[in-house]
Protein: glycogen phosphorylase
Organism: Streptomyces roseus
Amino acid sequence: MKAIRRFTVRPVLPEPLLPLADLARNLRWSWHTETRELFQSVDPEGWQAAGGDPVRLLGAVSGPRLEELASDRRFLRRLAVVAADLDDYVHGGRWYQSHEDHAELPAGIAYFSPEFGITAALPQYSGGLGILAGDHLKAASDLGVPLIGVGLLYRHGYFRQSLSRDGWQQEHYPVLDPNELPVSLLRDGEGAPARVSLSLPGGRALHAHIWQARVGRVPLLLLDSDVEDNDAGAREVTDRLYGGGSDHRLLQEMLLGIGGVRAVRAYCGITGHPDPEVFHTNEGHAGFLGLERIRELEGEQGLGFEAAVEAVRAGTVFTTHTPVPAGIDRFDRSLVARHFGPGAELAALPVDRILELGAESYPGGDPGVFNMAVMGLRLAQRANGVSTLHGAVSRGMFAGLWPGFDPADVPITSVTNGVHAPTWVAPEVVRLGARQIGAGRTEDALSVGGSQRWDAVADIGDQDIWDLRRVLREQLVQEVRDRLRASWLQRGAAEAELGWVDSVLDPDVLTIGFARRVPSYKRLTLMLRDPERLRALLLDPDRPVQIVVAGKAHPADDGGKRLVQELVRFSDDPRVRHRIVFLPDYGMAMAQKLYPGCDVWLNNPLRPLEACGTSGMKAALNGCLNLSVLDGWWDEWFEPDFGWAIPTADGLGTDEDRRDDLEAGALYELIEDRVAPRFYDRAGRSGLPVRWIEMVRRTLVSLGPKVLAGRMVREYVERLYAPAARAHRALTADAARDLAWWKGRVRAAWPRVTVEHVEALAAAPVGGTAELGATLTLRVRVALDALTPEDVEVQAVAGRVDPQDVIQGGRSFPLKPTAGPDLEGRWMYEGPLALDRTGPYGYTVRILPAHPMLATPAELGLVAAPVETDAAGDAGAGGGVLLR
């Protein structure tokens, strides 16, 4: 019979074992080896059955075993040490508290994301965005950053993947009971569950409980709409990650953004945590948080809408993660208007102004949609991409929001992603480091970084590195066999026909890994472009290759599912199935075995569509070499000393088949001629592949300190969070009103702001040439309408020019007012221009808004520049000047 209700009966821990409950409820155990080993010793078989989840373990351990442990002095000593270590970790000072500018750093930061990958025991993630968010929280905890994470608790999480007999992806959505997860309800002072509520059209309401996970010293708040007071539709809002239609997704994002701010306020009120001075939205999904903060400021401080927008922008950071427009949530304007109209949520805010924030009001934009990323950028004074290349791509992608500016001037910077080494580095790697360079130095290197700590890896011997690599490869082989057997049984095979699985993979064969989501641009099947050539690589009698592949296609992406099926069918071939495998249900637990066990990590996206690609970073931290297209982080940090770059066939336009053929050929050639020969080169006296081992060593020494999430979070703190906190503090209510008024005045006057004339007064070029080191004195006449020189900055911009006379890598030089205004309101500006570069050279002049509260002169998207040149080569009526 099927139960009508499910609940969990937990054993009562004996008093000496009570610290186990605290250890289980703090997710630091997911990256702290000593805590995991302690729980494993409670019941080794139960630990395995619980999937390494302490909460599940404690829910199943027997009473007699608990009583036995309660009188085991050795176990109690271990428990006391681990519990004391957690207490010191949570309450002791760390990097943030000892920062030289600590008083200037934000007292609190709220970090919003639609998904968080903390541990497989809390399956609230789908891929890279969530794993990055989880690593951000963990690194913030290690560094002592006062972060509050905010997300949703999905009762079905993301889907579990299996395969049909013919290799077609199938999705399953397990039911998750929060009472069986490492989370607890946030309760108020009287013990009642805290909750937030949103108003919906038609008099409906959306209520949500707030579950709290402890990620070290960082709280993670997860909103759950499965509340009895909700109607059936509202209860299902947080059913699945990235599920449902537009209306469903809009409600999820309203709950995340608006409800998330309210959850943060409730948490801070209950616990005394400092209110956030900075709000960081990880992609556009949480962008509605800005609207809730506008509502707060209008109600609490009496700010008007425009002033409230300025106050919100000052303390907001927006991170974009996708270079693919299809990856951005866009809603029909009428749907958004209905949910924010009279009788619905945020009714006090004008709907037309809300719609303007997400409008694609630029060339090529769709006037009928509301763009969440566009709103995120308009409500954040600071924005960034997630690698240097992705920052450049994002500046081009969103350049329409800053018309008149070159993409290089678009105010989107970049902070390259990093990964949380204690989560992703295999325990065997950590133990080798502890043995060779000391446990303390190894822990510091993994969590804090610093090149000096990683330089010590150079002292580890060749034999030690090679022995470690073989152990990790052997562990992966066993993991693959276990997972492959389980997959085939799920596909309908009988145990009797699976004897071949025991010979799948070889711990002495070069192993290549490829695992990620399966959108088309990541090109899961590029390796299958020439099947016969791939078979030859796999079956080479002297230098064989074996490949482990994993990945999930989105449930609605039949094209991605066909790619999975194509790969599965190839790997099912009895001729090669011992050399190439596809493992279904890629997730954190699998990844933590896969990265360390591979010798080479493969990544072959269509450049430049990989925003960062952090899986290769995790592999690198385990001594795995990268073989990748120069995209994302690899474009930034690649060196031949520690990996290979797959040549790309850029410039072929829409001929994708031709591009894939060329790049697949380059991939095969690299493996045949460079990768495999180096792995199997054992010509030296030691019998070891010494050149390969040296590449492993260089990977750890050179990439180790760069790819850490600790480095990433420190950059966010110093480059984005601290400036945002200063701006937040400076923008008092009166300052916000003044800034909003000033922006309105500038926008009104700007159509009549022009560069009327430009001339060179001294050292003018003769015959189109000038000497290096010479100085031009520029005189410029500008019309400022009702504005004054205090409202603008007049600049000369100079640099080398390309054949189309476009300035490349230009530098700006401020010009100073020397006279004005005349009777027509015009001003004269002058300034020197040093000719400091040889070759084709040019300059122009532009006018930008200027105000001490602006983060960048491009913030308003306003620029006045010359448009034509007179016959004498000087600028009239906005003309430009070119020097060669």
DSSP finds 29 helices and 28 strands in the chain. Residues 462-490 form the longest helix (29 residues). The radius of gyration is 30 Å.
